[in-house]
Structure formats: structure tokens, C-alpha cells
Amino acid sequence: MNGKQVYFGKIVNKNSRVSFKELPTGVYILRLNLDGEISNHKLIKQ
To answer: Count of domains in the chain?
Structure first.
């Protein structure tokens, strides 16, 4: 990525299936509460 940060997002619910195979490394899953604050996060690829 040449030192650039790329941001993208997808709104999912708990029943959604998301494929991580095509995502770049260092991807985080963020769960936001209704106030827009991060309530949970997880690094899924390193």
C-alpha cells in the first residue's frame, strides 16, 4: 500500500457473512454503538 491508509466500510448485522480472503492485511473489525463510539474491535488479519 506504499504507506497509504485506505478506509472502507460495510454495515453488517450479526447474521451477515463477510469474506475476509480478499481484504488487505491489517484489517480491523469495528463495532460502533449508537453514539458512534467504538464498543468492540478486533484485528482479523496481520
So the answer is: 1
CA distance 23 to 25: 7
Sort 40 into a burial class: Cβ within 10 Å, 0-12 / 13-18 / 19+. Answer: exposed
User: Which pTM was predicted?
Assistant: 0.28
C-alpha–C-alpha distance, residues 45 and 28, integer Å: 8
Give pLDDT, residue 43.
64
Q: How far apart are CA 4 and CA 20, in angstroms?
A: 20
What's the domain range around 20?
1-46
The residue behind cell 472502507 is 8
